[in-house]
Amino acid sequence: DADVTQTPRNRITKTGKRIMLECSQTKGHDRMYWYRQDPGLGLRLIYYSFDVKDINKGEISDGYSVSRQAQAKFSLSLESAIPNQTALYFCATSVGTGGNYGYTFGSGTRLTVV
Amino acid sequence: TQLLKQSPQFLSIQEGENLTVYCNSSSVFSSLQWYRQEPGEGPVLLVTVVTGGEVKKLKRLTFQFGDARKDSSLHITAAQTGDTGLYLCAGDRSGGSNYKLTFGKGTLLTVNP
After folding, report:
1. Which of A35, A98, A106 comes nearest B99 by C-beta?
2. Alpha-carbon distance B111 to B4, whole Å?
């Protein structure tokens, strides 16, 4: 099993629908992150969580919400999906002081909003 | 404003050639990392550099962190087709407990047989 698992891998949804992307990890890391990747824009941070009771907005949190259900689970929700939320979404984890350790990424969820 | 600027954006070379890609910023970073991403997958960490002037080698890949900790380079010797991918640099400015990464947009490398 992968260290960081994202489900679903691919999803097509309609404008206005609510959708949840899920992330689970077996690394035992406290910190979890959600990024989106768009061509020409790179990886941008949506939300991050340093432990179960800590949730923080990233640079592009509007239109998104998150839930940290347990140390190992961090979900990203789009309350009312819109076409410009079409992107590749990545979940990542890290240890507490990660400067020397880096992130471990999941394989991504490709989301298309039509 | 782009915090980490990577160049070139695209690079296409023949197998066996050498190449260097760059990651530049006007900000100081407490650590800087390089990742490689293949199509359909998440980025995978290659190396972390934390000390100004540091040089790290990973087989045919050489990573350097600038003396002022504002820039970095990745040099690949005798590139192979398996080196094809998107190379991302990422930096942490906060250090310590507030650690989170900012990513550059990447260099898309294609190594042709």
Report:
1. A98
2. 24
